[in-house]
Amino acid sequence: MSSRASEFSYLCELVKNSTAIALDAQREYLMDARLASVAQQEGFGSVSELLTRVRTGTSSQLQWKVVEAMTTNETSFFRDVKPFEALRQVVIPALIKARQNERKLSIWCAACSSGQEPYSLSMMLREHFPELQSWKVTILATDIATEMLDKSRNGRYKQLEVNRGLPANYLVKYFKKDGVDWQIDENIRAMVEVRRMNLSVAWPLMPPLDLVMLRNVMIYFPVETKKQVLKNMRSVLQPDGYLFLGTAETTINLDASFTCENFKNVSYYRPLLRRV
Of these four, 28, 38, 78, 130, which has the most CB atoms within 10 Å of its CB? Predict the structure, then answer.
């Protein structure tokens, strides 16, 4: 095995052991593309030097920086559009009707990356469901990457980021220009609680959830991890709750206790059984 192949093999094992994410063997080129900046920031002359130090050193902080750099953080405002239409037209109205007595909603955006999904939800709720302003609405946003969590908390985005998926009227209404960036409105930001969470290890105690967005995450997990994540999800989702996965993801052949429903070619999942 060549030195480069050995480095990539080690990196794959490191990422898998830390996050359960399986790196595509055909994407070895990402090793240099994603780790070059880490190597430079940490004072190493090359990616190879960085990986040698991680491999032989004792710095868990440096190891985690390498792992974070290799995780995928692709996202955008109102990503894929159609799931948000299903939320607006079907799911949120159904939850409002079902929670009239409690007057509270608990939503979780898992693997939130830099925060565009939870903030998209916040803006949608504020724009289309003004009655919820008198409810207790909690949107939990979690990710494993420290840099992404910091960005989510700050709610500050570059022009290119707000150009991707964000309607112009939302930009005007819910953001203000701050230098070359855009800062999201404090009232929208206050609706989102940001925490670090690794989906592949034991989950912390969580409240019963009405809606979970777990999109484009499980595609990176091996089958056994997918099954465990869905089992954990079933334990925190309300019996009448909703689970959204990515278009290339499903519960079929992984967890028989979910049923699939559909709205205008958008699939989402609901528990067949009561929470266990």
Answer: 78
CA distance 248 to 225: 16
pLDDT of the residue at 1: 55
Q: Where are the beta strands (DSSP E) in the chain?
A: 104-109, 136-143, 156-158, 175-178, 181-184, 192-196, 209-214, 237-245, 258-263, 266-271
Rounded to whole angstroms, the Cα distance separating 187 from 190 reads: 5
Query: Roughly how many angstroms between the first and final C-alpha of the chain, as a whole number?
Result: 47
pLDDT tens figures, 214-230: 999 999 999 999 999 99
Cβ-contact 161, 119 below 8 angstroms: no
Mean per-residue pLDDT of the chain: 92
pLDDT category, 25, cuts 50, 70, 90?
confident
Would you state the torsion angle of the CA atoms of residues 210, 211, 212, 213, taken in this order, to the nearest 10 degrees? -170
- How many angstroms separate the CA atoms of 276 and 263, rounded? 27
Sheet holding 258-263, edge to edge: 192-196, 136-143, 104-109, 209-214, 237-245, 266-271, 258-263
**C-alpha to C-alpha distance for 39 and 154, rounded to whole angstroms:** 26
Helix, strand, coil percentages, rounded to 5, for the chain: 45, 20, 30
Any idea which residue has 């009227």 for tokens?
169
Q: Are strands 181-184 and 156-158 parallel, antiparallel or unpaired?
A: antiparallel
Token pair for 98: 């079902």
Beta-bridged to residue 213, according to DSSP, are: 109, 244
